[in-house]
Write a structure and sequence with these properties.
Radius of gyration: 17 Å
CATH class: Alpha Beta
Number of strands: 6
Structural class: alpha/beta
Strand content: 5-15%
Bound molecules: uracil
Number of helices: 10
Strand order of the largest sheet: 2-1-5-6
CATH architecture: 3-Layer(aba) Sandwich
Order of helices and strands: HHHEHHEEEHEHHEHH
CATH topology: Uracil-DNA Glycosylase, subunit E
Distance between the termini: 35 Å
Length: 227
């Protein structure tokens, strides 16, 4: 599908059309981002401020995928710019990875939330299977366009959506997974789990940095034709 017709397509059909266009080399990130801004493939758009699409260079050697935007991301329109994003940025830095050079995104592009009992704050709600499925072509489209050498799946929602049910974050974290999306596919915890870790927060953070160091070392390895 041509770039112009993607934005003109029925809002519910856009994720699948974008993916088909990207696979044919007929879409670029700007066109896809514009089409995603009006996506209506599930109902989450109705209560969200905006679509939060991925951000970063295209192509990029590293792509990181989280679950869905949070309150701050929903307001600012950028992924990982709230408290979880602060943890992620600090950990990447400690792992020797330049966040600015990575493409950062989420599986689900709209903030799903419920009000706190007093109605003053918006509380994150986990996206369900149908919502993840409806949104999945967007992150698959990002993968097509970004073509990362290394892909990091942050937490169970990203791992389940892109790797399938045979994987577990805690069992499979910090090592290479046998998956076709990139030359290295790895998983680790979602940074929000560190914020919730209470007394174990420091240990959880250090383990997160260690997982990211594994990826950083892989990116820095000497390049060989077969590696
Ligand atoms: N959590 C995510 O998974 N993504 C964000 O962008 C922010 C919080």
């Amino acid at each position: 599908m041509a770039r112009a017709s993607l934005a003109a397509a029925d809002p519910s059909d856009r994720p699948e059309l974008a993916l088909a266009s990207a696979r044919k080399g007929a879409a670029d990130l700007d066109a896809v981002r514009k089409a995603a801004a009006g996506c209506r493939a599930c109902d989450l758009w109705a209560r969200a401020t905006q679509t939060v699409f991925g951000s970063g260079p295209v192509p990029a050697r590293l792509m990181l995928v989280g679950e869905q935007p949070g309150n701050d991301e929903d307001i600012k329109g950028e992924p990982f710019v709230g408290p979880s994003g602060d943890v992620l940025s600090r950990a990447l830095d400690e792992a020797g990875i330049d966040r600015e050079r990575a493409f950062v995104t989420n599986v689900v592009k709209h903030f799903k939330w419920k009000p706190t009992p007093g109605g003053k704050r918006r509380l994150h709600e986990k996206p369900n299977k149908a919502e993840v499925g409806a949104c999945l072509p967007w992150v698959q489209t990002e993968l097509e366009l970004v073509r990362p050498e290394a892909l990091v799946l942050l937490g169970a929602t990203a791992l389940g959506a892109l790797a399938g049910p045979g994987f577990s974050v805690m069992r499979d974290r910090g090592r290479a997974l046998d998956l076709p999306h990139a030359r290295l596919v790895a998983t680790t915890v979602h940074p929000s789990s560190i914020l919730r870790a209470g007394a174990g927060r420091e240990a959880a953070y250090l383990a997160f940095v260690a997982d990211l160091r594994f990826v950083g070392r892989w990116l820095e390895r000497p390049q060989t034709a077969s590696a």
